[in-house]
Amino acid sequence: MEYGICNLSIIPLRAEADDRSEQVSQVLFGETFEITEWKENWVKITTSYDNYTGWIGRLQFTMLGHLAFKKIKQTPPPLTHRAVTQAWKITNNSVLYLPMGSSLSFLEGTTCHIGDDRFEIIGEIGETENIVVTAISFLNTPYLWGGRSHFGVDCSGFTQAVFKLQGTHLLRDASQQVNQGFTVNSLKETKLGDLAFFDNTEGKVVHVGILLNNEKIIHASGKVKIDTVDEKGIYSEDLKRYTHKLRAIKRIL
Fold first, then answer.
1. CA angle 28, 30, 36 (to 5 degrees)
2. Could you give the count of Cα atoms lying within 13 Å of 121 in the half-sphere of its Cβ?
3. Regarding beta strands 23-28 and 111-114, do their DSSP bridges make them parallel or antiparallel, or are they unpaired?
4. What single DSSP character describes residue 223?
5. Alpha-carbon span 100 to 129, nearest angstrom
6. pTM over 0.90, yes/no
7. How far apart are CA 164 and CA 170, in angstroms?
8. How far, in Å, CA of 186 to CA of 169, rounded?
């Protein structure tokens, strides 16, 4: 088995080995993956964090040895906690802008050692904020299918990113996340940080958001925003109508 690690700010993870193929997710700086197939300018990978499969460009990462891969798996590295963290790439005197939740792999002091490159983290690395502060920091982030950062995020990428900063591992898609945690029977029994899931007309879970209380939800729909929620679902303050039908509530934290 071969392994790799992201040495760029964000890599698009695509459904097929084609620049025009849809972005199904993203790989953030310092995240690792298994390489399962090589194809011309592309490699097929399975991410370590959420076991997601897709294609990335073969010039968008660096190889990682088995022992180094195993070390990161056993001892997850610290994460960046600000919306954007600057990293000075010492080898060519350039700057990378790392999204929240990037992994500071092989960190020694304030320097990440990834392959032959050295990345000096500029400023304080920061500490974990509470779930409200982290979630609110995403407000007005545009919706982006497959996105996982403040520059664009989808509904489950948003919940995954927020919970990642709380040290809680969520899977990638809403249809996967709904199978985690414990069921909460009604909105009246909810608490801050519970996840609310919503389905389509076929009964498939297609949306997720974070409950701030039993009346308000923060979620990514067009943009990250706060809407009203009740037993029927989400009532959009922008559209003045219900947009999502409530399916389930789960407690993860």
1. 80
2. 28
3. unpaired
4. E
5. 12
6. yes
7. 7
8. 24
Q: How do residues 172-196 score in pLDDT, each as one tens digit?
A: 999 999 999 999 999 999 999 999 9
pLDDT in tens, 64-115: 999 999 999 899 899 999 999 999 999 999 999 999 999 999 999 999 999 8
Please, which residues have CB within 8 angstroms of residue 199's CB and are 6 or more apart in sequence? Answer: 205, 206, 207, 245, 247
CA atoms of 42 and 67, how far apart (whole Å): 24
Round to whole Å and give the CA distance between 8 and 227: 34
Burial of 206-240, coded b for 16+ CB within 10 Å and e otherwise, reads bbbbbbbebeebbbbbeebbbbebeeebbbbeeee
Q: Is 6 a catalytic residue?
A: no
Q: Confirm if 236 and 209 have CB atoms less than 8 A apart.
A: no
- What is the β-pairing status of strands 216-221 and 117-121? unpaired
Strands 216-221 and 223-229, bridge-based pairing? antiparallel
Active site residue 155: yes
Instruction: Quickly list DSSP for 116-154.
Output: TEEEEEPS----PPPHHHHHHTTTTPBB-TT-EETTEE-
Q: Is 112 noted as a catalytic residue in this protein? A: no
Which entry of 81, 150, 207, 244 is annotated as an active-site residue? 207
Distance CA 234, CA 215 (A): 10
What residue spans of 144-208 are helical by DSSP H? Answer: 155-164, 174-177
